[in-house]
Every structure is written in C-alpha cells, then in structure tokens.
Amino acid sequence: MDGSDKRSGMWSKPRLHRRLRFLIVAILALVLLPYALTPIYAVVDPISTAMLWRRMTGARVERRPVPLSRISPALPLIVIIAEDGRFCRHHGVDLTEIREAIAEADDIDEMRGGSTITQQVAKNLFLWQGRSYLRKTLEFPLALWIDLVLPKRRIIEIYLNVAQWGPNGEFGVEAGARRAFGKSANDVSRYQAALLAAMLPNPSVRNARQPGPGLRRLAGLYVARAERAPGAASCLRQRH
Fold it and tell me: Rounded to an integer, what distance in angstroms lies between the CA atom of residue 134 and that of residue 33?
C-alpha cells in the first residue's frame, strides 16, 4: 500500500463516523420535532400530513379552520361518543380500550379500536396512515405529550379541523358540513352531526350527503348514545 492509499484509509473512517453522527442527529431531530411543535399548536392551526402530501402532489385540499365556539355543540359530543367515549377521563391513551382491542385481535393487522382521539391527532399531525408497530410506538408517547401540553378543548378542536370529512380533499368539519349539507358546521343538527361522525372511519366511501341504510343506522345509534351520555363532553366546557 502506497502513501496515498494509507491516507485514504485514514480519512475514510472519520468521514464514516461524521456521516453516522449526522444521520443519528437527523433522526433524533425528526423524532423530537413534534414535541417542539405541539405547544405552538395551542395557538396556531396545524395542517395534517395527509393535507401536506396532497398539496405536494397537486391534489385538491379544501379546508376552513373554525374555532370550537363556531361548531355546533352536538358535533364534538357525538364525535367523542363515536370515536373515544372516555376522552374526558384518560390522559391521551386509553389503556382499557387498548387491552380490549388486543384481546379481540390475533395481530395488529386485525386490531380495531383502542385508538383515542388524541392518538388520532398525533397520527394526523405527525405520522402516517396504516397500521404498524412502529407507528404505534411513536404515537403513544406523542399522545401523552399532546394531552399534557394542550387542553382537551384544544385537542378536539384540532381533531375536528384536520380530520378528513370528504372523498375529494375536504378536511375539517366546516368543509365537511358544507359539502354534505350546504351549511356551516355551526348550524348542523344533532342527526347531521351524527352522519358526519359516522363518516370518519372511511370518508372516501361513506357519504353523509347521500347516506345509505348502514350510515343512517349508525347515525341513529350515535344520537341515542349522545342523549344518554351528555356528560361525555364535559371537559370541553369553557371555564370563566
């Protein structure tokens, strides 16, 4: 080996170490970024990763963020009833629901339920769709952090404004209500709120504008549950 080869060998290891350190720092920064952004979202309206991706690819995005005070009270109540009945009682992760979901499933691909509204906010804002152990591993501590940093009222407000409510890029309940009923989210009836909530698992297929029998039945079930449990949204009341 001549002198140039020796010098090349001496410098290759430091370069490799620098690249490795850079990669570790970049991954760490990416993981920690959501924790830094969450307090900012107490006052700034965030966008979801799905909205960001659609904008990057030139797909349609329609969204009109509205404060919770300009959303019909029936909507957050029925969404809580439909998506996360213990929203006001847990701290971002519902361990009881998770245990029940795991007990009913053979693996994570079959697992249904167990995901709180706060976890869905973490997923919508910072992660990706689909089921995987990696996403759940990242989602759990993020949900705990979101619940610690943001009040429940703000968490549900963010959720209602970033969830997808239509098949053609309608994000946020205002865009969803206008598409489905031609009216503001502040003016929907309890049954219309239930139709919107029933869309949430699959807004590309379920249509509140032209609900089928299954969607109407589910909406009626949510209305009945909301009438029996008005206190499910007690943590959303403004304190004076």
Answer: 17
